[in-house]
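Throughout our pipeline, every protein is held as a single compact record rather than as scattered files. Such a record has a labelled line for the sequence and another for the backbone structure tokens. This encoding replaces a full spatial description with a residue-level series of whole-number codes. For reference, a complete record is included directly beneath this paragraph.
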Amino acid sequence: MQQRTTVRLPGDVRRPFEVYVNGVRQHEGGDFRVEDGALVFQRPLKQEGRLGFWRWASILVGVAGTYRQNDSVDVVYERAGQRVVATGLPLVPDEAA
């Protein structure tokens, strides 16, 4: 099974728009496709989530760093003639057949 990741687009996004993952421009058809108001990536993207007390404590004393995968998806589009950036959109990982 191949993992994929879905990112729901904000309701006011209209074409044309630009998509970035971790600051790198993505291209429709190659990197993602648009389905039912969402971006679908055919690869797993992950967000680190909240760090617990012990993880914070170990970072503060220099025992550990935070080296987990932490992807950020941003969409740049126009709203009322102004460029708008929707940043850090939530990721929804799922299994694809």
